[in-house]
Each structure stands twice: as C-alpha cells, then as structure tokens.
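User: Could you go from structure to sequence for me? I need the amino acid at each position, not a summary. Structure tokens:
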C-alpha cells in the first residue's frame, strides 16, 4: 500500500502545476498559449504520451474562424498566411477574399517554447485522471488545481460518423508551381470513393502541400493508392516532385448522428477539450476554431478548478449544439441524400453562396438566415431523398437532440 511516507512513492502530489493538460496536441497547445498570455500566467504542464509533442501535422483555418483579438497570442504560432483562397468544381471556379492561415507542429512548438510559461513533458502516458491528479504509466503522480483531458478523438457509441480521410504530401517541386493562394477544394478531379477533392497549400513558390481528400462512408485509407493519385495530380499540372518534405494522413469524423446527452452522461469532473470533448465542426472534422473558443472561455474563467470548468464546458457544448445539429443534417444530405458520384454537386451549390455565409459555416456560427440561404433554391439532390435526411437517428439513447434555438 502506498502512504505519504512511503519512500517508493514516485512523487508527492503537491500541486506540481496550476493546470495540467493531458495530451499535447492542438487543443492543449492553443489553451496553453492563451493562458500563457494572461497578465499573471499559471504554471502550465502539458503531458504527452508519445515522443513527439504536437505530432507532425499542418492545421489550417479561415481567418474569420477566430474572433479579432487572437493575434496577440495566436499569430506567433502561424507558419504561413494568405489573403485569399480559391475553390474549383466542374462548373465553378471562385476566388474568395477570406484569409487563410496554417499552423504547423513545428511552428506551434516554437510558440509554446517562446512563452517561457509552459512545460511540455513527452513520453508521459497518463493512465488515470482525477480532478486534482494525473497518474502516469509507471505510477508517478502529478497534482494540479485543474486537470484537463485533451487526449484526442475517442470514437464512441454516442456518435455515428462517416469520414473525411486524406493523405497529404508536402513536396518541393523542380520549378515554381504558379499557385498563389490556397486551393481549399479542387473538386474538378475524378470523383472516387465519395466526394473527392485535392487541397493545395502553397508554402513558397516551389514548396506545396498536395492533399487528396475523400468524404467517404468507410474509414479505410489506402495510403499507397492515394499517394499515387497525388503524384498523378502533380504530373497532370506539369509539376516534377523533387523531394517529399512531409507526409500526413488523417481520418476525421464527419458526424451523421450524435446523442449529446449520452456523450456527456458518463462524464466525470475532469473537463474535456478538443476532439476529446467533441469540440469540432461536425462537417469538416476541424477543431481549431473550437479550440480557440474554448481557450478564451477557460482564460476568462481562470483561475478555475476542474469540476467548475467541466460544468462550464458542458454548458458551452449545450450552447453550440443547435448549429452542430444543422451541420449533421447537411452531412446526412451529403452522405445519404446524394449518390457518391453526385456529392460534389452539393458542395458546388454551397460554394455559390455569399462569402459571409460560407465564412460563418466554417466558423460554426451559421445564422438562421444562413440556414434559409443554404436550403433555398433547387436542391442538388431529389427532394424525397432530402426529406428522408431530416430525422436524426440517435446512435443510442432516448432519441434525437431536443430542438434548441439558434440565436
Ligand atoms: C493530419 C491531420 C490534419 C488536420 N488538419 C486540420 C486543419 O487543417 N484544421 C483543423 O482545424 N483541424 C485539422 N485536423 C483535425 C483536428 O483539428 C486535429 O485532429 C487536431 O489535432 C485535434 O486536436 P486535439 O488536441 O483534440 O487532439 P490531438 O491533436 O490528436 O492531440 C491529442 C494528444 O493526446 C496524446 N495522448 C493520447 N492519449 C494520451 C495519454 N493517455 N497520455 C498522454 N497523452 C496522450 C496524443 O498522443 C496526442 O498527441 C487535422 C487532423 C489530422 C489528423
């Protein structure tokens, strides 16, 4: 048995940090950067199971996803930024004057280190989380006034999903590619495995991320086949790949049904952020805008203990639920209303909408007026199939979300 006087006890819990975040991924980094910018920053400890805190990813966002004011603490983490973006479909090419920015694992790690207030411990796998303590693999204990769970997405019975899956190659080309702004969707490519598009991030004249994405029913990712498709895309554009600088793969949830009550029913007093807390956009699977909002919420409430923060986040989840319910309805239209080869038509119709409606959609701030706009006009799918997508079959539990008003 372990006692306070046991000499073999690995560490004595005496608030090693003010806040411990388990899982050094995107949500943890964003929260830590936000708290480190407070006038009296807390002692922040990030615990990461792997040897590579923040992984090896590129996280992008629309500039309008985040409220003005984040520049003071988030901009240090940005690796590249562009004033516009474009989309390409079979019958639509559009340049959109919405800024786009990318954060890389390396750029966020640098920003975290530069604060001087954040300690990152890698190779630290948590096996038990309580509101005041984290137990690590091997038995070490770390105490804090606030413990947060940011261990990433955990698929569960409360969520029914399809997938946004992709392989990305950041490559150096032999000659300039000629792409000035990010291509958020080039859906003029042959449609395979559901809705397919290529995503381009031009980091410099010859350094470009080429990502082949599919909105598919199944999670299986044939990395070799998709890499071959990326090389074919490059060749078709006359690009010669000189070197592969980075590879990334992702299989993100596109939520078709969610029982929020079941999801939160078994929740403990340990607050969950990021994908762990289902704080991501139901259609894009992206979590950066939500991570910024949650970071603001925590910073405004700081200092706060675990249990009070868990309540605050639960309340936040309730407030964002109506919009997410609408996005899930759109997902069902995309996946169940349209035949796989016609899914691109749904997205093409979406991209004809006014820019502010598109911006609010990505930001997760769709208004009632936007909903009317999105649903108006001739639907790209048969009306009887669209109507069948309205009811939300709850994955488990008493029934679909109770309707709540979008303000
Ligand atoms: C390749 C890729 C690209 C993406 N691009 C974008 C994008 O452009 N924009 C966007 O908004 N979203 C993007 N996403 C989606 C989503 O935002 C990311 O998955 C994001 O990283 C989620 O952040 P998170 O902090 O919730 O989880 P993660 O970033 O996955 O972090 C969770 C961390 O917890 C660690 N961990 C797990 N268990 C333990 C444990 N027991 N103890 C300690 N540590 C543990 C993991 O090792 C991991 O480092 C992308 C996802 C992928 C996979």
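Assistant: Here is the amino acid at each position, in order:
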């Amino acid at each position: 048995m372990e006692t306070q006087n046991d000499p073999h006890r690995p560490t004595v819990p005496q608030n090693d940090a003010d806040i411990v975040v388990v899982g050094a991924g995107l949500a943890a980094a964003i929260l830590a950067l936000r708290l480190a910018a407070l006038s009296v920053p807390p002692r922040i400890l990030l615990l990461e199971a792997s040897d590579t805190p923040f992984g090896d990813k590129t996280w992008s966002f629309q500039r309008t996803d985040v409220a003005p004011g984040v520049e003071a603490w988030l901009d240090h983490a940005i690796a590249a930024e562009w004033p516009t973006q474009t989309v390409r479909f079979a019958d639509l090419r559009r340049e959109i004057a919405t800024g786009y920015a990318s954060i890389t694992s390396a750029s966020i790690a640098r920003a975290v280190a530069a604060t001087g207030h954040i300690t990152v411990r890698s190779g630290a796998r948590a096996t038990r989380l309580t509101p005041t303590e984290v137990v690590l693999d091997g038995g070490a204990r770390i105490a804090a006034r606030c413990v947060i769970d940011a261990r990433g997405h955990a698929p569960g019975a409360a969520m029914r999903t399809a997938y946004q899956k992709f392989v990305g190659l950041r490559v150096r080309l032999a000659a300039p590619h000629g792409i000035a702004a990010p291509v958020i969707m080039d859906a003029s490519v042959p449609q395979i495995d559901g809705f397919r598009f290529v995503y381009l991030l031009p980091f410099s004249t010859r350094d470009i991320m080429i990502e082949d994405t599919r909105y598919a029913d199944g999670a299986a990712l044939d990395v070799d086949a998709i890499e071959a498709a990326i090389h074919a895309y490059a060749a078709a554009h006359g690009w010669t790949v000189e070197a592969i600088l980075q590879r990334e793969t992702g299989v993100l949830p596109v939520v078709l049904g969610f029982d929020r009550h079941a999801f939160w029913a078994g929740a403990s007093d340990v607050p969950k952020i990021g994908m762990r807390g289902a704080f991501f956009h139901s259609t894009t699977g992206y979590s950066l805008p939500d991570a910024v909002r949650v970071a603001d919420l925590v910073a405004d409430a700081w200092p706060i203990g675990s249990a009070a923060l868990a309540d605050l986040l639960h309340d936040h989840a309730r407030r964002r639920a109506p919009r997410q319910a609408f996005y899930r309805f759109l997902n069902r239209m995309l996946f169940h209303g349209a035949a796989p080869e016609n899914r691109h038509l749904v997205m093409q119709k979406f991209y004809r909408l006014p820019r502010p409606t598109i911006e609010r959609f990505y930001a997760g701030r769709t208004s009632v007026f936007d909903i009317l706009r999105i649903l108006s006009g001739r639907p790209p799918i048969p009306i009887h199939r669209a109507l069948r997508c309205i009811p939300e079959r709850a994955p488990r539990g008493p029934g679909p979300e109770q309707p709540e008003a979008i303000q």
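One structural detail worth keeping in mind: The radius of gyration is 22 Å.
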